[in-house]
Design brief:
single chain, two-stranded antiparallel ribbon, 14 helices, 46% helix, 4% strand
Length: 386
């Protein structure tokens, strides 16, 4: 199993709101009075909470059984080790628990002279970002030196003037794999998550640069500088400029004039939406409104919208973090049906757990068929739903 493909599984992997109240970023729109949402059955909340706890406990047990003696997962992969450690921490384990302690020690040994934490040099940003999130969650005081080094390393990886890239360049503000490769929204969202977890002040210039890059990943002609052609859906694509132009993992869309455009999809839309939230954009910012409108129109946890079952578990953990950052516990979709996102997402995750406590995706693109990766995604998603 190639480390690049395995961690690239992380890589595939995120509107006009309904009514004037939505535009103000205030209360959620009311449900359709003709078909009001059903009240949850008595005890349903307690039942799903108990099922989530049981599923989490079984997932933790599975992950711990898969850990190598040196504290790693994925045949010594620093990136997969960081993701699994993040899953254990999300599930309530601490650095005082031996599996987490061993994983943290493995990550610290993987810190390079440049401050990054990685093994495969081609995957520096992913691995360093997830490792930073782990260190600040596990024991920030004990590892302050390592944390500051990896944080400084990551900040330098952002594409900006230091790479002779100015604000007019589609790469500006994004993060790529780490070897001067083009930035993409998946690398960027993990980079942004690490900065949020590390408590980077909101007045740091990094955040405004992030907003600039994410805006160019959004299918919204008013704010993407004409970087790519879409349908003004408000959703997000993978990269505004790759080797062969803008890139989406979803099938292209045929525009009314016959041109082929790029189609937005679920995991990247939530990734961009979450990044907007962390970059301190207001809820009534038109870019945020447009992204939420896309989410409302494509509301489902049965698939990764526009990709089907591909990248489903990446989608789950990204959506959970994004919706938690959004705030309200209820979302009204484009058909004016009200959804308790925590209950619905928890249910979708729990019923897909396998007998051994793991999760795995039969649609094994981006290595979601490797259970430690998908199990970690699910533990993170369930934690965000609590």
């Amino acid at each position: 199993m190639q480390a690049r493909r395995l961690i690239a599984g992380l890589a595939c992997l995120a509107g006009v709101l309904l009514g004037a109240a939505s535009l103000a970023g205030a209360a959620e729109p009311a449900g359709d009075s003709a078909s009001p949402p059903k009240a949850p059955a008595e005890g349903a909340a307690a039942d799903i909470a108990a099922r989530c706890k049981a599923a989490t406990d079984r997932g933790v047990e599975y992950l711990i059984k898969q850990q190598a003696p040196d504290g790693s997962w994925g045949k010594g992969s620093a990136g997969i080790t960081a993701l699994c450690a993040q899953g254990l921490l999300a599930a309530g384990k601490t650095v005082n628990d031996p599996p987490v302690k061993k994983a943290v020690d493995f990550l610290l040994k993987s810190q390079q002279a440049d401050g990054g934490i990685y093994g495969d040099a081609d995957l520096r940003t992913y691995t360093s970002s997830i490792a930073l999130s782990v260190l600040v969650k596990a024991d920030p005081k004990a590892h302050v030196g390592a944390i500051e080094k990896v944080k400084a390393y990551l900040i330098k990886t952002q594409w900006d003037e230091e790479e002779s890239v100015d604000k007019s360049n589609p790469w500006y503000g994004g993060a790529g794999y780490g070897k001067h490769e083009r930035p993409d929204l998946s690398n960027t969202q993990f980079f942004v998550q690490a900065m949020e977890d590390a408590g980077l002040p909101k007045n740091h210039p990094l955040w405004a640069k992030v907003a600039t890059f994410v805006s160019r990943c959004q299918d919204r002609s008013e704010s993407n500088d004409g970087t790519f052609v879409g349908t003004d859906s408000g959703g997000m694509i993978y990269a505004p400029k790759g080797k062969d132009g803008p890139e989406s993992k979803a099938d292209p869309v045929v525009l009314p004039d016959g041109r082929r455009g790029l189609r937005a999809y679920g995991s990247m839309t939530y990734a961009g939406f979450k990044s907007f939230m962390y970059a301190n954009l207001k809820r009534d910012d038109p870019r945020v409104v447009a992204a939420m409108d896309w989410i409302r129109k494509h509301w489902t946890f049965e698939e990764n919208p526009e990709l089907g079952q591909l990248g489903l578990y990446y989608y789950y953990q990204t959506a959970a973090k994004a919706l938690k950052a959004w705030g309200p516990g209820k979302i009204t979709d484009a058909r004016r049906r009200t959804h308790d996102w925590r209950a619905e997402l928890s249910e979708a995750v729990v019923r897909r757990q396998q007998a051994d406590g793991s999760w795995s995706n039969p649609a094994d693109r981006w290595e979601e068929g490797f259970p430690p990766v998908t199990t970690s995604y699910c533990l993170i998603a369930l934690a965000e739903c609590r």
